[in-house]
Design brief:
The protein is an alpha+beta fold. The protein has 13 helices and 13 strands. The protein is 37% helix and 25% strand. InterPro entries: Acyl_CoA_acyltransferase (IPR016181), FemAB-like (IPR007434).
């Protein structure tokens, strides 16, 4: 087995990429997703994101797997925050950037970080041991170029556990809120599992939106018009504009996705009197829905909950999806039935002194995260079992 670095998906080629990932349905493993990032200039020159894909091959050069990594000159768009680490390096006159992240750009979604036809769902224990092997290659590549660190973000918990024997690697946890399908028949059945008070609150939220004369639609990417993508992109940018920022992704990125992987995209749109006022963009595969981008042109009470959560849950129930990852943060998800889950990241810090200090930080942080996970779990809306 051997490995080679590439700094563009086109250097690997779609045929070889597809041969490597095989039947993998994870949206963020698809060639079209990464090609859209590059061709739309959402990553690359001037963005602080420089791709370096690691292609693993058999001895006969047949593709086995791909690991997506990026050289970063900042820490934006990652959602595992290490700004304080970078500041500490700077205070000591040391260089933190560039660093390497092993992740999906702009996407705090837990999932595969090695895409392979040998393990399309990421649950083959024997194959999963490739993670520590590739970590050694990451470390070696970093040492050759004197990079400060590499960071594996939002990896699956069972994959994070594989790194435990290597004491030079730091394990960090955080908390997100995900929805799980417990064999609910439909939305009414789902809400029937809420306590009476919480069920009334959820129904009242949905009624508020309806009484405002707002209707919602769900459209697959294959059926989106250019005008609908334009409107969504306006909503997407408006979310960042409210914080005095600009969205990371370009209009071309979303257009390419709709054209090339539209069967894995869902757009929820909200209308008042046939005029679109809000939109939410999601990805999905055979198992999960991934809520990613939202924006609105008119503020309406509870519309965010409806467009980003309730509509997504209904879609999961209709399609038989088992899991809904709506994105990072947000305690407001709890009341809608999203359960606290741990997310995991692995960090290699080259400098031994900083590694020890950051390791102590991660341990202290983990204790607080576990307490937070326990406390938020008690706030879920479901009926208490007798």
């Amino acid at each position: 087995m051997k490995a080679q670095w590439f700094n563009s998906v086109d250097q690997i080629g779609e045929a070889k990429w597809q041969e490597a990932i095989g039947e993998t349905r994870y949206p963020f493993a698809q060639f079209a997703f990464h090609q859209a990032l590059e061709q739309s200039k959402s990553i690359g020159d001037g963005t602080g994101w420089y791709p370096e894909y690691l292609l693993v091959m058999d001895d006969d050069d047949s593709p086995l797997a791909i690991a997506p990594t990026y050289l970063k000159t900042h820490s934006q768009g990652e959602f595992v925050f290490d700004w304080s680490w970078a500041d500490a390096y700077q205070r000591y006159g040391m260089r933190y950037f560039p660093k390497r992240i092993w992740a999906i750009p702009f996407s705090p979604v837990t999932g595969l970080r090695i895409f392979s036809h040998l393990d399309p769902k990421g649950d083959d224990v024997q194959f999963s041991h490739l993670y520590p092997a590739l970590a050694e290659l990451m470390t070696q590549a970093n040492q050759e170029r004197e990079f400060s660190s590499w960071h594996l973000l939002f990896t699956k918990p069972e994959h994070a556990a594989l790194f435990a024997p290597n004491k030079d690697l730091l394990h960090r946890i955080s908390c997100q809120f995900h929805w799980f399908n417990r064999d609910y028949k439909d939305m009414e059945d789902y809400l029937s599992h809420f306590s009476s008070r919480k069920r009334k609150t959820a129904r009242k939220e949905r009624d508020k939106v309806a009484k405002e004369g707002i209707t919602l639609t769900r459209t697959l990417g294959n059926d989106l018009t250019s005008a609908e993508i334009d409107f969504f992109y306006l909503c997407y940018q408006s979310t960042y504009a409210k914080r005095g920022q600009q969205g990371y992704l370009t209009r071309e990125f979303f257009g390419q996705l709709a054209e090339n992987m539209g069967d894995q995209i869902l757009l929820v749109q909200a209308f008042r009197d046939e005029e679109a006022i809000a939109a939410s963009w999601c990805f999905f595969d055979d198992h999960s829905l991934y809520g990613r981008y939202w924006g609105c042109m008119e503020e309406v009470d509870c519309l965010h909950f409806e467009a980003c959560y309730y509509q997504g849950i209904e879609f999961c129930l209709e399609k038989g999806l088992q899991h809904f990852d709506p994105g990072t943060q947000g305690e407001h998800k709890i009341a809608r039935g999203f359960e606290p889950v741990f997310s995991h990241s692995i960090h290699y810090i080259a400098h031994e002194g900083f590694r020890d200090a950051i390791g102590n930080f991660c341990e202290e942080e983990a204790q607080a995260v576990r307490e937070y996970h326990r406390d938020t779990h008690a706030l879920l809306p479901f009926k208490q079992e007798a």
